[in-house]
Task: structure prediction
Amino acid sequence: MTIAIHGLPVARGIAIGRAVMVASSRVEVVHDFIEPDQVEAEVARLRTARGAVVAELQRMQRELPKDVPAELTALLDVHLMLLQDELITAGVRQWITERHYNAEWALVSQLEVLTRQFDEMEDEYLRERKADLEQVVERVLRRLKGLAPPVPLAAPRAVRAEGEVLVLVAHELSPADMLQFKKSVFAGFVTDLGGKTSHTAIVARSMDIPAVVGARVASDLVRQDDLLIIDGDAGVILIDPSPIIREEYAYKQRQAELERGRLARLKHTPALTLDGERIELLANIEQPDDTPAALDAGAVGVGLFRSEFLFMGREGKLPDEEEQYQAYRRAVEGMHGMPVTIRTIDVGADKPLDDRRESTHLNPALGLRAIRWSLSEPAMFLTQLRALLRAAAHGQVHVLIPMLAHASEIRQTLELLAQARAQLDARGQVHGVVQVGAMIEVPAAALTVNMFLRHFDFLSVGTNDLTQYTLAIDRADESVAHLYDPLHPAVLQLLAATIAAGRAQGKPVTVCGEMAGDPAMTRLLLGLGLRSFSMHPAQILPVKQEILRADAGKLAPWAQAVIESDEPAALLTEP
Ligand code: PEP
Ligand code: MG
Result:
């Protein structure tokens, strides 16, 4: 019987494939595909870790005081037995040799298969052994982490039967994990947690494959290798679809392919409205390797390079000036002379620097995030600023500062930029001129936009955070996702005022939040006077199509009425 699960649509399209479960564990697990020639080494690594845990448990057994309760000795016996159980060892080995999972991933995958079997056991005693199994696996995982040399990050590739399509299902994926899967073969993603504009969702969207987040129970209901349909337009996942449903979705898939082909013809068409307004379409990227996709979609520059992705998942070893300079330079050169807007590091909230360093703060989105973090680590910030200034010697670099709200933050930021320049001069190192911009993503900034216009060359509106902070809705929390609404009149009025103020001062204003890449919002943004949009490359052509059909002049009075209405969403499809 087909089971349907509803979540939040994140990236459009239909994927039909076999489920690959990425199990969660209390110990942080890196999910890597290993190269075929690493299989033996990976199996050996696992064997060593298991052997070490066996030795550890045996030593514990020997050293137990004589008077401990018999249950404790028995427990250690159970753990040792589980460790040597063929079901576990052979299963884990199979994940490594057949699917080319790294040892940690193989271990948690097998754990998941076995815990389901335990759950179904009639015998209560046996059912309860699940917890023992989890503890034993955790011990091995810890060993693997402690003893293992780092597994080289091979270009992730899944080993699959010819023509087999794989889709990934996880309880939760961090943005860094998601980035890791960017070069993999997965044709779709589902996670239980996450909101539509969470950073995990944003990275999924940038991969241009169907994705659904906030699916709550998906990782409980889906089993390894189940056939799934992911409908990224409707936010629905279908488990074990009937042949008729499959055929219907395969048809939809073919239609979407045709639509893509049709849109591709617009690549070289200038983005002009019917009344001749030229619109700038820029790309959002996460890493320098994304520039070919930006060029391919016909972007005329990068409007947002989220530089924090260079810093994430590195266990505290942040990239030094040289490494950053090379990365920024690659992005600049990759865009062949077009402007590249690089945002200074925006970590915190749902983008921790390191997954292992869980935030201890109750409200991380309101805490030491983005520019607040940079100003609290001036040496780190200066390093980034120097790297950016050096990259500017190779092309047009615009530096964008996230989450500013206070005059003091503006002052400190600009002082540090001047200091970085002076340091490079003192070293005699070549650097270039940069335009400096501020993100408007906190209501306080939108309400004092003229202060920002006095200090900065351009503004970029981060509607994802502007919505989050205006409405007090955590953008990464699926339980309040129904209240997260970029079309709330309060958000729209802040946005409209920012665009209008920029135009009045003759300074460029871009929108780089997810709203800019949503074709349903294009006419409204044009009507509000926006002339520069930055979005994932995959969104550029659908948005351009809307632009080509729009008359910006005629849209202005309508857009004004929309933002003044109590329920703008209801007017969006008019006139
Ligand atoms: C935004 O907040 O809209 C934005 C573009 O920045 P990020 O999504 O990275 O927070
Ligand atoms: Mg933001």
Q: What stands out?
A: The chain is about 45% helix and 15% strand.
